[in-house]
Amino acid sequence: MRICTPEQAxxxxxxxxxxxxxxxxxxxxxxxxxxxxGDAVFSECYYAPFHKDFKHRMYSTxxxxxxxxxxxxxxxxLLSLDDPIAKFFPEYLEREGAARHTxxxxxxxxxESSLRGVHWFLPNVxxxxxxxxxxxxxxxxATLFDYDSAGSFMLGVIVEKLxxxxxxxxxxxxxxxxxxxxxDAYCLKTPGGYSWADSGILCTARDLLLFARxxxxxxxxxxxxxxxEKFMREATTLHVCNNDFGFVAHDGFGYGYQIWGMARxxxxxxxxxxxxGFCDPKHDLVFVINxxxxxxxxxxxxxxxxxxxxxxxxxxxxxxxxxxxxxxxRALTTxxxxxxxxxxxxxxxxxxxxxxxxxxxxxxxNPMGIKWFRLEFDGLEGKFHYENKxxxxxxxxxxxxxxxxxxxxxxxxxxxxxxxxxxxxxxxxFSADWPEERKLRIRVQIIDKYFAxxxxxxxxxxxxxxxxxxxxxxxxxxxxxxxxxxxEAEAQ
Length: 492
Known about the structure:
Layout: E1 2-3, H1 13-25, E2 30-37, E3 40-46, E4 56-57, H2 62-75, H3 105-109, H4 128-134, H5 149-163, H6 167-176, E5 186-187, E6 201-203, H7 205-216, E7 220-221, E8 224-225, H8 229-235, E9 260-261, E10 267-268, E11 276-280, E12 285-291, H9 299-312, H10 326-337, H11 353-356, E13 360-363, E14 372-378, E15 381-388, E16 391-399, E17 403-406, E18 427-436, E19 439-447, E20 451-460, E21 465-473, E22 483-489
Parallel strand pairs: 1-3, 16-18
Antiparallel strand pairs: 2-3, 2-12, 4-6, 5-6, 7-8, 9-10, 10-11, 11-12, 13-14, 13-22, 14-15, 15-16, 17-18, 18-19, 19-20, 20-21, 21-22
Helix pairs in contact: 1-9, 1-10, 2-5, 2-6
């Protein structure tokens, strides 16, 4: 990977710093960022504890990998894009209603299949393929766009049935390993044994940069063609209108083959929480970000606003370099090396803390099943003790910084999605602040194979009475941490 300064890439170090500062001003929980032009990276940053070797969950960016795997299957003569998907699942055709599934491979690629809204995350879903065919079509194929994770999963299953190997392994053998993609990257599995092809890849930010460069080059890397140009141009062409109202929105510029159109002729992979491999053909630029914006309804707009306003609006049109600025570049490098994962930033202290320090509050019946809790404060750190259905738990937290520890709830999914794993725990970051004198916030960021945000707000009427709200934004876990409870201090 070649490194250059921002000025050599045609943009000032000052603009690059403003880009990062804009993200932080929006309180985007950034994990990693890479900016590259041509074959040179002009900015790379990791927000501690994230680092260059961290295998980050890519969520729906996985769908774009699956699309490329379908392209290789077509190139290898294993399928036609106009094949009906039922062709690959004869064992399901005798089931009631299965014959109505007439969508083609191409229609799944463009998310114009006949199905919408297949919900995987239910306890009785042990075979996602069977569940897919049990759902009845709701519209005519090739007519309307509907975001369709189930269809992306089925594309991955098709690849694995045809090749006899996990779709990521197939891609590694075809080109990923040769272009430098991590050999230890992997994909989570689903009940039934297939790869979680709509959401499950874990790889590094640099891996995503390589893949995005392959997309921007329409199937070539360092001058070598791996996948035919016809398929890659179709994949990155916006075939489908995905904007019913016509609003100007970050995700409303059309859709290709599991790839999203963006403003100004750009396109991007697109994963929940902001796992983006953004490609700008005009400037030969790739932007990679891993973050977790879950719970922020404006997160994507804020990221793209920062990118377009600070980078694309100022980078040289013809690729020419700017005059060297060594002092500005050194200052930028130093500043980026100091970045840390987002934490709550309001007041670190409240005189009210001493009134409730160590007091046990007995909870009324509540959706979380919490029986009692106690808050303890020790300078700029604290602990939230409580008892729920699993027993006595504790969350540490920091004021003005994150405390890193295992999230106390056990048994969530590990390598197989939607499948409880006894004893499994997730790494997490815990911070807190006092937005009001009698209001304490705790922010929990799950930072593991699965990502999530949890907000816990304690609103005290006085030193004896409190309401607590827990709000989680997570895919199919943390349900035990959602709801409101009231509690009263036990008599001393």
